[in-house]
Each structure stands twice: as structure tokens, then as C-alpha cells.
Design brief:
heterodimer, A: mainly alpha, Helix Hairpins, two-stranded antiparallel sheet, B: alpha/beta, Rossmann fold, 4-stranded parallel β-sheet, 4 strands, 23% strand
Chain lengths: 216, 105
């Protein structure tokens, strides 16, 4: 592992020791964050999978009813029947905070509260299958919105987890080993200097003793 | 104070005509090339949720990925009238892979 390019001084050593302490602490915190995010994510994922399966199958059912209706009516009639919707939906959005990730939370309000009153056409010229298809669609709508909410939350969480995971790994496998290596290098270097100094002093002492007590 | 947002559906005419009756904004597109600009325009206007049929989404995966990390719009794949192509589930899987680093499903 490559060490950082620093001068082997005592001051640098102190600085690096502070840095490694911060890095270790950050690493621990981020790791905790990642684990908690992962827990939330898996929970949401499970919900999402079940919900998606359910929505897809009910949508398919609505589609097939719709196809039957379309087959029974002329395309122009169908178009005309649905041209101007009676129902309208307004969507409100709040954001919810999951582990400092903002995920949307939708609330919706329909103009028409009566579920039986959504058909924007007269019943005389349309087939009953169309009514069935629309009922099925409006039934699935609530779940469809819930699916949007959950799926978006999942995407946002996935992104955050990826980011956190990268940071954890960068700290664990790059930053911290690098700092450790550098600290070791500086300690070695300083020790070596110390030893060099000591032997030099001993040598000088010997020389001085030899000079002073020549005859001893 | 709460803003109201729009919900839009993009798909071929037969698949999404019914959504119009529910009061959603419907945009017809028969090819992915047509759907791309529509999605772009919807994202700039205040659209919170965009439902798009799977067969269209297949062709503009890159455009959809662009909105994955932002709060709005949520681009959600729904099966068109041809049936579920499994792309919606696949995108769920790819999100898992992104988070966990491996496919655990």
C-alpha cells in the first residue's frame, strides 16, 4: 500500500494521528448508516415486489376488459366516450425522511368522490364492458399510486446506499490503510533517527574519553 | 401550503385510453422515439408521477435512468396491453443490485 508523500516529522505524525482517528470514527458511523439503510431498503423492496405483482396482474385484467370493450365498440365511439373525463385527480406531495433520504409521499384528491360516478359518457351508446374496464382501472389506481411512491423510495434509497457503500469502502480499503502505513513509516524513520543519534553520541563520548584520559 | 402535481401516462392509444377516464393526463406515443421528448417535457413541468408502458420504456431506458435519482418525477413502468414483459420487475432487480452489489432475489 502506497504511503502518503509527507515529511517524516513529529508534527506530521501528530497530524496524521488525528486524521486517522477521524477517519476511523467516520468509517464506523457510515457503516452503521449503511446497515440501517440496507435494513430499510430490504423492507421496502419486499413490499414493492408484492405490490408490483399485484398491480401488474390487476392492470392486465383491466387491459383485457378494455380490449373486449374496444372490440365491441367502434374506435370512434370509444374515443368519443372517453374524450372528456369527468373525473380529475390532484396530487399532493410531501417528502418523508428515511435516514436523511427524502422520499416522496403522495396524497391525492379526486374531484368526484363517488366511485360510481366516474363514467364520462352516457350509457346508451356504450357497451357495459367499458364500464367494467373503467371500474377495474379505478380500483387499481390507488395501488398504482402506492406503487409509484414505494418504487421511487426504493430507487432513492438504492442510490443513497450505493453512495454510502462507496464511502465506507474508500475509507476502509484506501484511506485508513494509507494513513496507517504512513504513520508506521514516520515512526520508523523517527526511531531510526533516534538510534542514529544515540550511536553517534556514544561514539563521540568514546572519542572524548580517549582524548582526555590518554594514558588510562 | 401544498403544491399540486400532475400524474401522466405515456403509452400507445389502446393501452392507456382508459386512464383518461380516471382524470390522468394521457400522452399517446407509439414508438420510443416519440415517448422520449414527451417524458422530457413532463419532467420539466410539475409532474410527480409518470406511468409509462413497458414496451416504450424498453427503448428509452437511458432517459428513464436520468430521473432515477431525483425526487420528481417518479417514472413507473406498467405493463401495456401486450402483457407484462418483466421489465418492471427487472428494474426492481437492478435497484437491488445497485444497493446490495449483488443480485439477491
Amino acid at each position: 500500500m502506497a504511503k502518503l508523500n509527507v515529511n517524516p516529522t513529529r508534527m506530521e505524525l501528530t497530524r496524521l494521528k488525528i486524521r486517522i482517528r477521524t477517519a476511523r470514527r467516520g468509517h464506523k458511523l457510515l457503516k452503521d448508516k449503511r446497515d440501517e439503510l440496507m435494513k430499510q431498503f430490504l423492507e421496502i423492496m419486499r413490499q414493492n415486489r408484492i405490490l408490483r405483482e399485484r398491480v401488474e396482474s390487476s392492470l392486465m385484467k383491466a387491459h383485457s376488459s378494455f380490449s373486449v370493450a374496444a372490440a365491441l365498440m367502434s374506435p370512434e365511439m370509444l374515443e368519443q366516450a372517453l374524450l372528456y373525463p369527468k373525473q380529475s385527480v390532484s396530487l399532493g406531495m410531501n417528502s418523508k425522511n428515511i435516514m436523511s433520504v427524502n422520499v416522496p409521499e403522495y396524497t391525492y384528491k379526486t374531484k368526484n368522490d363517488d366511485k360510481a360516478d366516474i363514467y364520462p359518457y352516457g350509457f346508451a351508446q356504450t357497451s357495459g364492458e367499458l364500464d367494467d374496464a373503467l371500474t377495474e382501472l379505478s380500483d387499481v389506481f390507488e395501488e398504482l399510486l402506492e406503487l409509484a411512491q414505494i418504487e421511487k423510495a426504493m430507487q432513492l434509497l438504492a442510490q443513497e446506499i450505493e453512495k454510502t457503500r462507496r464511502r465506507v469502502n474508500a475509507l476502509e480499503y484506501v484511506m485508513i490503510p494509507q494513513l496507517e502505513e504512513t504513520i508506521r513509516y514516520i515512526t520508523m524513520k523517527l526511531d531510526e533517527n533516534e538510534r542514529g543519534n544515540l550511536t553517534r553520541l556514544m561514539k563521540v563520548k568514546d572519542m572524548m574519553l580517549q582524548q582526555a584520559g590518554y594514558g588510562q | 401550503m401544498q403544491n399540486t402535481y400532475k400524474i401522466a401516462v405515456i403509452g400507445d392509444r389502446d393501452s392507456i385510453l382508459g386512464f383518461r377516464a380516471l382524470g390522468l393526463e394521457t400522452h399517446f406515443a407509439d414508438t420510443p422515439e416519440q415517448a422520449g421528448p414527451i417524458l422530457y417535457r413532463l419532467a420539466r413541468e410539475e409532474t410527480a408521477v409518470v406511468y409509462i408502458t413497458e414496451d416504450l420504456a424498453n427503448g428509452i431506458a437511458e432517459d428513464i435512468d436520468r430521473y432515477k435519482d431525483s425526487l420528481t418525477p417518479a417514472v413507473i413502468l406498467i405493463p401495456g396491453k401486450q402483457g407484462s414483459l418483466g421489465i418492471g420487475m427487472a428494474s426492481l432487480k437492478s435497484a437491488v443490485e445497485r444497493a446490495v452489489g449483488a443480485d439477491i432475489l
